[in-house]
Structure formats: C-alpha cells, structure tokens
Design goal:
Elements lengths: L4 E4 L2 E3 L7 E2 L1 E5 L2 E6 L1 H4 L8 E4 L4 E4 L1 E6 L1 H6 L6 E2 L8 H12 L8 E6 L17 H5 L7 E5 L4 E4 L1 H7 L12 E4 L5 E6 L1 H8 L7 H17 L2 E9 L14 H11 L6 E6 L9 H8 L13 E9 L32 H17 L3 E6 L2 H17 L8 E4 L5 H9 L3 E4 L1 H7 L4 H4 L1 H6 L3 H6 L3 E4 L10 H10 L17 H7 L2 H6 L17 E4 L16 E6 L2 E5 L7
Parallel strand pairs: 1-6, 2-7, 8-15, 9-10, 10-11, 15-16, 16-17, 17-18, 18-19, 19-20, 20-21
Antiparallel strand pairs: 1-4, 2-3, 4-5, 7-22, 11-12, 12-14, 13-14, 22-23, 23-24
Helix pairs in contact: 7-8, 10-11, 13-17
Length: 572
Amino acid sequence: MEADLVITNGKVITVDKDFSIKQSVAVKDGKIMSVGTNDEVKPLIGSNTRVLDLHGKSILPGINESHMHPAFFGATRPPLAIDLTFPAVKSIPDMVHALQNRVSETPPGEWIRGFGWDQASLEECKNDPSMLPRKGDLDAVSPEHPVAFTDFSCHTLLVNSKALERAGVTKDTPDPVSGEMERDDNGEPTGILKEPMAQALVSEHVPLLTRDEKKTALLTALSHLNANGVTSITDAAIGPGGENFLYGVMSSEFVHLYKELLEEGKLTARVSALILYGDYGALTLEDIKKNIETFNVPLDVDETWLKFPGIKIFADGIPLTYTSWMNENYVSGNAGHGTSVIPGETDQEQRDNLIEMIRYVHSKGYQIGLHATGDRAIDAAVDGFVKAFEDKPGGDPRHYIIHGDFISREKADVLAKHNCGVAMQPFISAMIADFEPAVVGEERAAYEWPTRTVLDVGLNLTSSSDAPVTYPNWRMGIQSAVLREGLVSGKVSGPEECITVEEAIRTYTINGAWQDHMEDVKGSIEAGKFADFCIIRDDILSIEPRKIGEIPVLMTIVGGEIVFDESAGAFG
C-alpha cells in the first residue's frame, strides 16, 4: 500500500512499552501504517506520498493535555482579556500599566477583564505571601471602568472600586458562605475575593461572553495548544453549572460549540470533557441529581474526536489560599486545617456528603474527575471510590483525583489497586514551591506533588497545565517534574520525588490516553494508532534538563493532517 505521509530520518520516540526509538513513520487514512527504519518504511512511499525529512529532529506522540479549561484559557488571552501572566507582568506597577493601556482604548463604563497575575511573581510580594495588589492600585487609572482581574490559580479575583460599586458590594455586604471577601481594618472590601462563592459577589455582574466570543475563545485555545504540540485535551468542566462562572467560560454552550467545530473541520485536537452539573467549586449532590436527568450531551458524534465520559466533583480549594482540606493545621494564617467545599456543618458531615456524591455518580456509570488537593480531602475521596466499587463492582470507569497535591503513599496504593489515576500539574509545583513552606511547613511542602511516590506504587499519573492556571507548555512541565526546582529561587523541593524524562513523557502521552480509555488508539507511535505527532527541534532525551522548557515545537500533526507548522520548510 502507498502511504499518504511518510516521516523519515527522525528520532521517533515511540513511547511504546519498551520506550523504543525508531527512525521513520508511515501514515495512511489518518492512522499509523508502519514504524521502523528508513529502509523498512521506504517501500510505502509512492508517487502521491508526502515525505517529511526530519534531518534528525525528534518526534513524539501528540501531547495529551489531561486536565485544563480550554475555553477559559482562550478567554484569558488577547483579544478577549489582558494578559497579566509572568513575565508580561512582574510587579504591581506593570499590572497598572497594562490596565491603563486597555482603559485608553475601551469606552467608559465597559468592563475590563484580565487574567494570570501571580502574587509569587510580583516583586512586591516575593518576601511576603500575604502581600497582594488591591483595589487602590487599580482605581487611579480606571475610575470609570469596572475591572475584574483573575489570578493564575482562578482562586483569587481582584476588582476595583467601580466593579464593587456595579455589583453593589459594600462594607455592609454579608460575608459569603464559603471563601473570603477580604476587608480592611474599617470593614471595607479591599477588592480581593477568594474562592468561587466570594468571587461570585462581583463576577456574576460581569457581562457573559457572547456565543461568538465563546467560539473565539475555543479557537484561540486550539491555536495555542496546537502550537505547543497538543493533540488531545480533557476539558475539565463545562455544563449547566458553569453558565455564570467567570463570564460563562464553562457554560453548557461549549458542549454544542465543540460539536460545531468538529462538523466545520475546525476541531484540531481530540476532546474529552467532564460535565459540570453545579456551581464551580461549590457543587452539591442535589445539583447532580437535578441536572443529570435533564442535561443531554450529543451522542451523534465521532467519539474518537469528541466525547463526554465523566462528571466533575470538587472536594476543596488550594493550599496557597488556605482552602485545601488538610489533616493537620496550616503553619500560618488562621484557617486551621482548612475546610471542604462540600456542604456540611462538621468535617464528618462534609466527608459523608462527599462520599455519597461519589457513590451516586459511580452508580450512574460515569467516570469521576475529582478536585482534591489537601490530604484530608484526598483521603475522603479515595474512601468514597472504594465504597462506590463495593456498591457497584465491575466496569472500568478509571476515576481519578485531580491535583492530588498531598496524596499519601497509602491512598495512592489504594487508587492503583482500583485502576484509578491522579492528574498532576508539575509546573504549578514549580510556581508555588518557594511559597508553600510558609503555608504548610517545610516537610509537607517538600512532599507536595509526590510524583515518584505515585509512580512507584503503580498509579496512573498524568501531567497537564491546568491552563489557564499555567500556559500549556508541556516541555516546562517535564522540566519541572524532572528537576522540582522552584521558579523563583531555583531551590529543589523534595528531590526524592523527582522522576525521569522518560517517565515524564509518558505522563503527557500514553498515560493521558489511558485516562481517556483510548490507549489502544493513541498515546504512542505504533502501527494502527492515530497519526497524532509532535515534532520538536531538540533531543529531549539528551538535552540539559534546564533547557527542556525552551525546546521549540516545529510541527503538530493530528490524524495525519498538519495543524501547526513552524519548520520554515526545513522538512521538505
């Protein structure tokens, strides 16, 4: 047979069970025909075959972003929002300057959105984790524009006085049921809102994205993802619970927009989506029961490109905002051991309610992706998975913990025995490593994100960006997993939890395919699988680890079609 495409003279990192290295790949009808040496594949080259000569460049399986928020990510990038990420914004004056530029081109009274500021990267905040920009920093340049700036973690919202005025938030506004509306010594709101219910005091007043803006957000995200070698993504939360969350970036309309993009031939990455049935970060069992019977996802789609296998659940927040649900108290702040976002008056009630939610979703046959960062939250979630399997054994849902910052070896072992997984984000680890000791103490901070531990017990580990929390640069994720160096100090945090480059590559490829129940058709470069590839400039297996994050992606191929090309014609 004649191949449609042959890629030759490459370093083919197959990520098969032996992590074998080959030289050439042949593709027919969007699938891999053959993998081998140049001589072995050469007979498949015909008169109509396109040949790419990589001249020794490396090719990997397409990258699988196993946990992110594509629409949210796209909505945080220009043209829909100001980019406040590091290094564009390194200080509070940088943030103010970026706002001033947008004010100059925005009609008075219109909302201005921004995303990505990181207190750990702001010069004024580096020596004090509690130091934050506040409304007074923004007011001078935006007296007529309501402003809403979401931080990189999505757990803190900064707004100006005009935004508080539009939302009717004053010193007399009651505190939210969960999260925090920060106040000054006089009880006035400072403009800092932590966690979803507090953020909603203002964010619900920001105009929702239009349908066209939502589609722009998805297309923007796909463009950035393809430029980074990404060929598969897990959308971590869209559905009826996301209609009003941060301007509608997780609304149910995205379910239909994905299908529309697929039908238009514009879906340039394979998508697996978790459905959000209740408020983001504040989901209840009643929300799930109410919506699971009435909200329908498309069934008439090609599931090799688009599917909706699971449901998103939340157990807690994140450690830097003292909202992770921990077994031991924080070493600073006044949050004790944190609390769950699950309803309940006591820890035991919250634990019981979380377990009941897990049992119910499992009984309906769905995969569960469960946000849990604190060890108390993780322990409860794992116990819930075990009880769910006792209630309804069999099947292969492959439930997984999302983040799993402080998962213990014992709970990781239990998950592995039940064929579950954990989805971690190594670059987030690098971003927060220098600041965690002040929050959870040196010992817990060094253990956080225990990648070596979970791999050693046989638990399926995936790596991802959680974009827009971090930019979807998987090379930087691999560098972080291998080195565990703090982004600010360069200090190694928990060297015993480092993993190898080869192991890290698996977490971004075949392990993500496993999470998607698609390891038989993607995730490695083997005959019969989809022709999803990422071609990079440098040899990731031999380059100095501190340079991995800088490796350029030269070409991305999905289903045999080139969706990104920065090779400048070098491959012919």
